[in-house]
Amino acid sequence: MPRRIRLLLIIESMGGSSRHVVDLIDGLDPERFEITLIHGTSRVDDYFAAALPRLRQRARVLGCPDLVREISPAHEARALRFVRRVIRDIRPDVVHCHSSKAGAIGRVAAKLCGVGKVFYTPHAYAFLAPEFGGKKRMVFVGIERFLSRHATTLTFNVSQGERSAALAEHLDRPDKFEVVYNGIADIPLPTKAEAREALGLPQDVPVAGVTARLVEQKDPMTSVRIAAQVLQARPDAHFAYIGDGDFEERMRQAAREAGVADRVHFLGYRKDADRLVTAFDAYLLTSLYEGMPYSLVEALRAGVPIAATRTTGNDEVVIEGENGTLFPVGDVQAGAVALLGLLDDPPSRERVRATYLERFTVRRMLDHIAARYEQRGTDE
């Protein structure tokens, strides 16, 4: 039997990037891969924490307290030393880094240690975030350009839009970037009635909703304003938020001021949110930017049509006239029109699910990435 490929995965941030890594560890064949995971310990979310006992059965899992989100030269120097020690210890054949901070530290460490294959998945480049402009944005672009050209075998982009952004900034040659969509497993889901009972939502009314963090990236104030307009136009409808975050109280106040607070439900974080999306008749996502949002893929899997902002990632999940509709970022009126259209005349569940089955299964994602891990030689 040939020797297993020694794979080192490195991640700092949580959310979609951690879920992607969990799926890799769960799905890669243990007879072909010997996996080590380095993860930051300062931002372990509930999903990742719940997965850790299972991951430890399939991989060597190492926490790194210095792998943190904020810019801190002292933390970064210690994290670099930590990663280099691990690389020297396990001598990986492949290093695969996820998100910007782990992507920088991991790729530098791998380059310094002479690792033959170094892969990177940004999960939305930092320079795409609206809050980064001017000189700070150009610093991030410069870092990505240098690391791609000098310390990366191949970048896996989670959307065509993300890849186009990399090429527009001349980060590297086009052949150094490949699109691999996030995939999820096609698991049994509860019925609409079962999901609504679990969430405490009314049964015989239209319900729109979202499963997302109530944080700035998701533009939750635009979301609640859209919800308010829709509920004023449809007195029989309700709206549900599954998720928590810093904006919740402001959103509650906006719903009260609009006179719809009795029909806007804040349901908090739920570890089973990906399954309970079946409670919705339509899904609303108002993100300012994305990489490739898992929540939209979960909506497709559940057969729930989507109204989403026309931004990177969203525009590759939502196909106008097939599974939903797109509207401009921050446009409350257009968002309300889009959501009302889906409530009034939704596409069939089978039509919505077709996009998921064609493009977003976890098996497609795993097969593509595993083939690159196993490919002989390097692409540099």
Automatic annotation (TrEMBL):
<dbReference type="Pfam" id="PF13579">
    <property type="entry name" value="Glyco_trans_4_4"/>
</dbReference>
<dbReference type="InterPro" id="IPR028098">
    <property type="entry name" value="Glyco_trans_4-like_N"/>
</dbReference>
<keyword id="KW-0808">Transferase</keyword>
<protein>
    <submittedName>
        <fullName>Glycosyltransferase family 4 protein</fullName>
    </submittedName>
</protein>
<dbReference type="Pfam" id="PF00534">
    <property type="entry name" value="Glycos_transf_1"/>
</dbReference>
<dbReference type="InterPro" id="IPR001296">
    <property type="entry name" value="Glyco_trans_1"/>
</dbReference>
<keyword id="KW-0328">Glycosyltransferase</keyword>
<feature type="domain" description="Glycosyl transferase family 1">
    <location>
        <begin position="192"/>
        <end position="353"/>
    </location>
</feature>
<dbReference type="GO" id="GO:0016757">
    <property type="term" value="F:glycosyltransferase activity"/>
</dbReference>
<feature type="domain" description="Glycosyltransferase subfamily 4-like N-terminal">
    <location>
        <begin position="15"/>
        <end position="183"/>
    </location>
</feature>
